[in-house]
Amino acid sequence: MHKEKIPIKVFAAIFATGILSFCGVIIETSMNISFPTLMKQFNISTNVVSWMTSIYLLAISIIVPLSANLKASFKTKNLFIVANILFLIGVLIDALAPSFGLLLLGRVIEGIGTGISLPLMFNIIMEQVPQSRVGTMMGVGNMITGIAPAVGPVFGGIIVTSLGWRWIFLILIPIVFISLLLGIWGIEQKSKLHKAKFDALSIIFVAIFFIGMIYGFSNLSSYNFISIQVLGAIIAGLLGLGMLIWRSHGLENPILNLSLFKSASFSAHTLSFFMIQVISLGNAFLLPNFIQLVNGNTALIAGLIVLPAGFAGAVMGPIGGKVYDEMGARRPILIGLTFMVASMLIFSLISLHMSNLIILFVYILYMGGMGTTLGIIMTDTLEPLNKFEVPQGNAILNTAQQFAGAVGTSLTSAIVAFSQAATHSKSALSTAQGTQYSYIFLTILAIIIFVLMFKYTKKKEH
């Protein structure tokens, strides 16, 4: 079968939006290494410094649900330029910030820019790439952003120890400029515009949902579950979600088209996508933590050990996408999920005694499976939708991804913290036990994903 060529400008548009998303993720993952330095410099606690990540995720989470309406109302190139400039402003503020308050302001502005740009790449792929190449390019898109979590800890460790934390932001400025120039040249408008109404109440309810959930889950390891800071915040978040669902039913054009969940297949795919992100973010916390606290290595060594797996996941994205284009979704998804379930089982069985070498190879197994699967699940979720529903479906998937960002790390860190609290110590043994309990939980999630995808992923029709 002859495959249509992808225009060079479409490649440029995908890479421009992908680079900006890459920069957003790499700041998030590399800044985690600098937390001890920031705590000393600004005289702040662990809970306060963690808002460097939480407030960034919060800004993205509130903006991403608006992406379908933004796409309908404004030209893609204009949205990209605004996102790029906002991100640059945020990076400059953070690079020069004399106080922690200004550092957080920069993170909010970066989050708004990332929240605008993140769905653009996948919208461009679904709208402008020939149908026979969509799977491959979705894999490439996930590869661009997927490299960042792998590179981030190593990049952060090297920069913080050799140049200082401000250089994490300064080094990215020329990369963001390249993204801006590529986008200005390559992004073209293919869809007609129509002014979509931005419902203020819906935006408020989205904000309440994410503020409650992110605040509640981030406090899981610091406060009792039955407390205002945890259960109270989560209940407030769930009330926000309930009000959003109620409000959406009364609108002709809601900011999130929740009626898509009437399809069992869409619901199963979205839930699976969400749970994969939870598992991946759980891994990203558990393994570096284990390497440092149990195996007694430095943060830089931990970053180097998990680095090959990140590259494996990134490389398998386009390969999985190409298989999807040739054979459909079912076979590559189930093969990838088999590797994921197997690796989670191995980690849950041996997590009391894991050497760095075992972690390296089993994590490669997981990330290879995840890289194969993730982009295909996204594509298989969006492919059946019509051209008006695709931006809405994309907004829902990206919103689920941000929510998983709040949940994945918080749940696994809380399980480890509970294990440490039960033994009244932060010893290597209590950390290893907490890691094992976390992996039992993540294994259950992986099995649920396999069952859902086995049931709801169809064979390719010839």
Question: How would you sum up this structure in a few lines?
Answer:
The chain is mostly helical.
Structure in words:
This protein is an all-alpha fold. It has three domains: 1-195, MFS general substrate transporter like domains (Growth Hormone, Chain: A, Up-down Bundle), CATH 1.20.1250; 199-254; 260-462, Growth Hormone, Chain: A (Up-down Bundle). The protein has 18 helices and no strands. It has helices at 8-31, 35-42, 46-49, 51-63, 67-73, 76-96, 100-128, 134-162, 166-170, 172-186, 200-218, 228-249, 264-293, 299-327, 330-350, 356-382, 390-422, 428-456. Helix 4 (51-63) runs antiparallel to helix 17 and helix 11 (200-218) runs parallel beside helix 17. The longest helix has 33 residues, at 390-422. The chain is globular. The model has no long low-confidence stretch (mean pLDDT 86).
The domain tally reads: 3
Kindly name the structural category. Answer: mainly alpha
CATH architecture of the largest domain: Up-down Bundle
CATH topology of the largest domain: Growth Hormone, Chain: A
Layout: helices, strands, pairs:
Elements: H1 8-31, H2 35-42, H3 46-49, H4 51-63, H5 67-73, H6 76-96, H7 100-128, H8 134-162, H9 166-170, H10 172-186, H11 200-218, H12 228-249, H13 264-293, H14 299-327, H15 330-350, H16 356-382, H17 390-422, H18 428-456
Subcellular location: Cell membrane
Domain Major facilitator superfamily (MFS) profile: 9-461
Pfam families: MFS_1
